[in-house]
Design brief:
A: 293 residues, mainly alpha, two-stranded antiparallel ribbon, elongated, B: globular
């Protein structure tokens, strides 16, 4: 690992004697190639899977903790078999396709609506001090309320339905987008607004040309996070309502103490989460390519 | 304060380097575009910031305002811009007939006002569209960018431009509406010296060619001498004009070579001496004000502790 002489700065601390400080980024930390990084990551996963598969089979360990009992932790081979069954219907397994579709579609719809409403509300309040003063305490109070506690109320309105899942996602995502859009709208430098005003721009032009794009950019920056929250909310709603989806399957699996199915569903959900967040990341980077370089 | 109407009349005709613009003498014969008459300003329940300040901004003439830090220079610009109203006195715009559509006033701020999601060309075009309700032609945009040495950078986003290029683009956004008055609020303070000098030359040439009246607020005396026709020295708060120097270098000056001339150094020295006096007065006033605050705090402290 090469350290250039320029990268070392002598600095005097309050303690007295000179100390060496290596300036940030000056050491060649990128010596670990992408290939090596991936190899290390694969090794870690392999070690964990092998340990998960074989450690619970060691006699006597099961008495020490449920963490070593295959009844509670299942095993990677059984989980792989279960996941295969969920996608192919092998061994009379339920097909996960329709469940997955309902969960993902309600998460997508809920996130989209939540993002739109939250961004709009954030922009509106960031642009009007009086409206902000009136409404902000209510929004803060609703945000402080655990949204899961509101799901039974939503069920009263919509029953155990697709709408309940969507509204649950909207309720959570709305606030993520709202607070970001609000901060984005408020973060606009006064010079930018004054500049538009000096050019004869109307109040609407200040909003449409300056404050609006800033607020939307800030809201869009949290799209991956919003997507994650949307998915979590929908699964939670499905667990609570029993409406068809991955959440309801999870609920059944845990009620039957079926560790293999539970782990299988959690892994499928994790993969779905990673895929949606990656796509959201790509969309955000494309839309906000001008930002953060 | 009367402000000229900005109704859409004709497409602004910005003179290119090939078209000789009105000379300095031609502009000086015209009346002031905007005049500040004995203006004073104070914030509500606060001490006076500006006192009996007068200023004439003529077409094609650059006036520099220098003074101690915090004396109220930027407040003067905000009065000129109409962002604040004087508590006393008046600011009057000339009502000369408009033969071409010129926006009354634009401002180049110290902070970057380029919108990051727009390309450099779109930023300039937006400023034109806001004032003229129509787009600049691509040819005109290219001409503008070439004028400040940014030909080919039109499609670049602000993050792709260097500090100097961003300032040049910001300057273009300010001149694209073809303003009668341009206010410069320490616009080059973030740039390195060579970039700043190069930019001074471009700005000086363009405002002379377009006949824009300019008010420049700066802390940099060399900058003031380089591009101004007159430099006004302001006192510490309340700001009032305590000195004025005509800059005798004319309209076809070479800013880079100018800095080596004895005349430049002599004028710089005279301004520096006047400014130093004001800075020392400002420091003395601040020390006196701090002493008063300390005395009041001391009394309050004794009251609280019951002594």
């Amino acid at each position: 690992m090469a350290v250039s002489t320029d990268s070392i700065r002598r600095v005097r601390t309050n303690g007295g004697g000179p100390t060496l400080r290596v300036s940030k980024g000056s050491v060649d930390r990128s010596s670990l190639s992408r290939r090596s990084t991936i190899l290390i990551q694969i090794s870690i996963v392999t070690v964990l899977l092998v340990a998960w598969e074989f450690v619970p089979q060691i006699p006597g360990l099961q008495q020490l903790s449920p963490a070593f009992d295959p009844y509670f932790v299942s095993s990677p081979s059984r989980i792989a078999e279960c996941i295969w069954g969920l996608f192919t219907g092998a061994n009379g397994s339920v097909l996960i396709g329709p469940y997955l579709w309902l969960t993902v579609s309600s998460a997508l719809v809920g996130t989209a609506i939540g993002m739109l409403l939250g961004s709009f509300a954030g922009l509106l309040l960031s642009n009007s001090e009086s409206l902000n003063r009136i409404l902000r305490p209510f929004l803060v109070a609703i945000n402080a309320t655990p949204r899961i506690a509101l799901i039974p109320i939503i069920v009263l309105f919509f029953g155990a339905s697709f709408e309940t899942s969507v509204v649950s996602a909207v309720l959570v995502v709305f606030f993520v987008a709202f607070f970001n859009a609000f901060e984005g709208g408020r973060s606009v430098a006064p010079e930018l607004v004054q500049n538009v005003q000096l050019l004869g721009g109307s109040r609407w032009q200040v909003v449409s040309r300056v404050r609006g794009p800033f607020a939307l950019a800030w809201a869009f920056a949290v799209l991956p996070l919003a997507m994650t929250f949307g998915l979590i909310s929908v699964v939670t709603a499905e667990i609570l309502t029993g409406f068809k989806g991955i959440g309801s399957l999870l609920s059944i699996a845990t009620s039957q103490a079926n560790a293999t199915l539970t782990f299988s569903l959690v892994i499928i959900l994790a993969v779905v989460g990673v895929v949606t967040v990656t796509i959201a990341d790509k969309i955000r980077d494309r839309v906000l390519h001008w930002w953060g370089k | 304060m009367s402000t000229p109407a900005t109704g859409d009349m004709t497409v602004p005709t910005m003179m290119t380097s090939d078209e000789p613009g009105p000379s300095r003498s031609a502009f000086s014969e015209r009346e002031a575009v905007i005049e500040v008459r004995n203006a004073s300003f104070a914030y509500p329940n606060s001490a006076t910031v500006i006192k009996e300040f007068s200023l004439r901004v003529e077409p094609g003439r650059v006036i520099g305002l220098v003074g101690p830090s915090g004396c109220g220079k930027s407040t003067i610009l905000s009065l000129l811009a109409g962002l604040r109203s004087p508590t006393e006195g008046e600011i009057v715009w000339s009502d000369e007939p408009q033969t071409e559509h010129r926006h009354p006033l634009t401002m180049l701020f110290q902070k970057d006002t380029l919108l990051p999601w727009l390309t450099a060309a779109d930023n300039v075009d937006l400023h034109y569209r806001l004032t003229h309700s129509k787009d600049q032609t691509p040819e005109r945009l290219h001409e503008l960018f070439t004028m400040v040495g940014l030909g080919g950078a039109e499609r670049a986003y602000p993050y792709e431009l260097s500090g100097g290029m961003r300032r040049r683009t910001a300057f273009l956004t300010a001149v694209a509406p073809n303003p009668r008055v341009l206010l410069l609020d320490e616009p080059f303070s973030s740039l390195d010296e060579p970039t700043r000098v190069a930019l001074h030359q471009d700005i000086f040439d363009i405002v002379k060619r377009m006949g824009i009246g300019v008010v420049l607020v700066t802390h940099d005396l060399a900058e003031a001498v380089s591009i101004c026709d007159e430099v006004l020295i302001l006192s510490a708060r309340p700001a009032t004009i305590v000195g004025s120097e005509e800059v005798p270098f004319g309209d076809s000056r070479n800013v880079q070579h100018l800095r080596e001339s004895p005349q430049f150094l002599e004028l710089y020295g005279r301004l520096w001496r006047q400014l130093t006096i004001q800075i020392e007065k400002s420091r003395a006033a601040q020390t006196a004000a701090s002493a008063v605050v300390d005395t009041k705090r001391g009394r309050w402290g004794r009251l609280k502790s019951g002594r």
